[in-house]
Automatic annotation (TrEMBL):
It comes from Clitoria ternatea (Butterfly pea). GO terms for cellular component: endoplasmic reticulum; plasma membrane. Keywords: Auxin signaling pathway, Membrane, Transmembrane, Transmembrane helix, Transport. This is Auxin efflux carrier component. One of its GO terms (biological process) is auxin-activated signaling pathway. Belongs to the auxin efflux carrier (TC 2.A.69.1) family. It comes from the Eukaryota. The chain crosses the membrane at residues 6-25, 45-63, 69-90, 102-121, 133-152, 224-244, 264-283, 295-317, 355-374. May act as a component of the auxin efflux carrier. InterPro entries: Auxin_eff_plant, Auxin_Efflux_Carrier, Mem_transp_PIN-like, Na+/solute_symporter_sf.
């Protein structure tokens, strides 16, 4: 049973993240150290340098030959269930939208397992829980964060293509086209904003099927893949897991010079990500930038929908005992910081993701303890 000492260990793991968050917030709101352009530059530093190296560092040190593939299968199935449900919602519901499906996917599936999940499950299930959480983090980095990156790049490339299509040669005032999607079921208009040639264009009328306003699909996919090839986030997890297979197969060690070069940047990954989140919060008018209704929406998806999908998948593949319990609890770990960094970089609901990270880390401990107590009755 988890005790006060174990709770303290979780708090010790989480508090440094909030220190970095407060420093980022204060550097803009209280001390006026950074301006808007400098804040954007900090976010790009995190997105393209520290996070890719952080992902590479932890994936490169796992043993892929000793992974629990039934556990991985359950985790994969749960995310496929969520993707299918969101796709149907976006396609069939009048309140559904592609953009909110992407954000909902992040909220349901992507967790901050390494920073919060490991210290949380260690007192509950010991080395077994830690091992499984690390495995889920590796799979998340290789498959699910890469999928998110692909979808975000697809969306941005499509918007940029439409910007080029709509832009007249004489370059007069920006052309404005309104997207009539409902804002995640909350009413209003979902407005896409793209920047091209230093001008802002509000784009994408979902009610228009004009072929002239869209790039051909093959050309669109070519642009997306080229951009992904140039994005270091695409390489971090792939090279990391490739090295993990090679090093564990032939008992090789990474040269100390290479390892040191990677670690000096990767160790700053989570700290700079939280610092960037604090900066983003400071630039908003309100502390809870997305409002209370979307805050509740994000917490419900993270702590109820995600674990529910995992429970269905775990039962379907036949997990039992502590492996089943860890599968449920790791799905209720708070929001991935990386998902916020991507949302900020690609301009898709960063206020929702930042709120999910901040409040998720606050409520995750009592929620996880509640899940732990309930799951103890399941044999």
């Amino acid at each position: 049973m988890i005790g006060w000492e174990d709770v303290y260990k979780v708090v010790v793991a989480v508090v440094p993240l909030y220190v970095a968050l407060v420093l980022g917030y204060g550097s803009v709101r209280w001390w006026n150290i950074f301006n808007k352009e400098q804040c954007d530059a900090i976010n790009r530093l995190v997105c393209y340098f520290t996070l890719p190296l952080f992902v590479f560092e932890f994936t490169a040190h796992i043993d892929p030959f000793k992974m629990d593939y039934m556990f991985i299968a359950a985790d994969t199935m749960s995310k496929i269930i969520i993707v299918l449900v969101l796709a149907l919602w976006a396609k069939c519901s009048t309140k559904g939208s592609f953009c909110w499906s992407i954000t909902s996917y992040s909220l349901c599936t992507l967790t901050n397992a390494l920073v919060v999940g490991v210290p949380m499950v260690k007192p509950m299930y010991g080395p077994l829980g830690v091992d499984l959480v690390v495995q889920s983090s590796v799979v998340q980095a290789i498959i699910w964060l890469t999928l998110l990156l692909f979808i975000l790049e697809f969306r941005r490339t499509r918007i940029e293509g439409m910007t080029t299509t709509f832009q007249p040669k004489s370059k007069p005032k920006p052309i404005i086209v309104i997207n009539n999607n409902n804002l995640g079921g909350g009413g209003g208009k979902d407005v896409e904003v793209a920047t091209n040639l230093n001008e802002e264009f509000i784009l994408e009328d979902n009610n228009s099927d004009s072929a002239s306003s869209r790039l051909p699909f093959c050309k669109l996919m070519k642009h997306v893949w080229l951009k992904l090839v140039m994005n270091p986030n695409s390489y971090g997890c792939v090279i990391g897991i490739s090295w993990a297979f090679i090093s564990n197969r032939w008992n090789l060690e990474m040269p100390s010079m290479v390892d040191g070069s990677i670690q000096i940047m990767s160790k700053a990954g989570m700290g700079t990500a939280m610092f960037g989140m604090g900066i983003f919060m400071a630039l908003q008018e309100k502390l809870i930038a997305c409002g209370p209704s979307l805050t509740v929406y994000g917490l419900v998806l993270k702590f109820i929908a995600g674990p529910a999908a995992m429970a269905i998948s775990a039962i379907a593949v036949g997990l039992h005992g502590d492996v089943f319990r860890v599968a449920i609890i790791q799905a209720a770990v708070p929001q991935s910081i990386t998902s916020f960094i991507y949302a900020k970089e690609y301009g898709l609901h960063p206020e929702v993701l930042s709120t999910a990270v901040i409040f998720g880390m606050i409520v995750s401990l009592p929620v996880s303890v509640a899940y732990y107590a309930v799951l103890e009755f399941i044999h």
